[in-house]
Amino acid sequence: MAQDTEQQASGGVLPVDDEGFVIDTEDCEERETAYRERGTSRPITVVGNPVLHKECKDVTAFDDELAQLVADMFASQRTAEGVGLAANQIGVDLKVFVYDCMDDEGRRHVGAICNPVLREVPADRRQLDESNEGCLSVPTAYAELARPDYAEVTGQDEKGNPVKVRGTGYFSRCLQHETDHLYGYLYIDRLSKRDRKDALRQMEEGTPRYPVVPND
Ligand SMILES: [Zn+2]
């Protein structure tokens, strides 16, 4: 309906399921487009840029400037063909990430989370998944990394409302990866020394398919 679309386009509140988790799987195309069309794509920071290697600041002002940042992040994510993007990946020192990612059942999730905190997940839901992982800030490199295949994140939406998000499979990986970013960690920081070196070598040998911020 028109009114719903309008509300969501301006960053409306997502519905929640009966356990209080946001339903971020509806109207994905419309919501992602609405964000992206209000945004400007910005170049991506790469490993070595100091903004990626320290904890970002908490979001405290849920204002127009934040809404513009989220829009810019969706635009940048699309340009770089990413499935998740943290604010410090476009050089902004604030705890926000956006995502446009499939879970292990092929459902698309679209959303934005401020001040995310990963929740401890019960042991029976923490099967490790050893899929390949990559990062827009480590262009052209991939490495296998074991992560729990289920994750829950609490935080706030871009209006400041408390939210809980959960995901399985690749989306679980995404939630963990993006939260890590905002605390100053890249996935390569979780690799063995050897695998990290190999990922950095892949990056040296490759050419990113999207604009990046050169390091000094
Ligand atoms: Zn990343």
Automatic annotation (TrEMBL):
Catalytic activity as recorded in UniProt: N-terminal N-formyl-L-methionyl-[peptide] + H2O = N-terminal L-methionyl-[peptide] + formate
Q: Which Pfam families match?
A: Pep_deformylase
Residues binding Fe cation: 135, 177, 181
Question: What's the EC number here?
Answer: 3.5.1.88
Q: Name the InterPro entries for this protein.
A: Peptide_deformylase, Peptide_deformylase_sf
Q: Which domain of life is it from?
A: Bacteria
Q: How is the cofactor bound?
A: Binds 1 Fe(2+) ion.
Give the first-level EC class, as a single word.
hydrolase
Swiss-Prot/TrEMBL cofactor(s) = Fe(2+)
Active site: residue positions: 178
What are the UniProt keywords, alphabetically? Hydrolase, Iron, Metal-binding, Protein biosynthesis
* Family designation: Belongs to the polypeptide deformylase family.
What does it do?
A: Removes the formyl group from the N-terminal Met of newly synthesized proteins. Requires at least a dipeptide for an efficient rate of reaction. N-terminal L-methionine is a prerequisite for activity but the enzyme has broad specificity at other positions.
Xref: PANTHER family: PEPTIDE DEFORMYLASE, PEPTIDE DEFORMYLASE, MITOCHONDRIAL
This protein is called Peptide deformylase
Say which species the protein is native to. Streptomyces rectiviolaceus
Q: Please name the taxonomic classification of the source.
A: Bacteria, Bacillati, Actinomycetota, Actinomycetes, Kitasatosporales
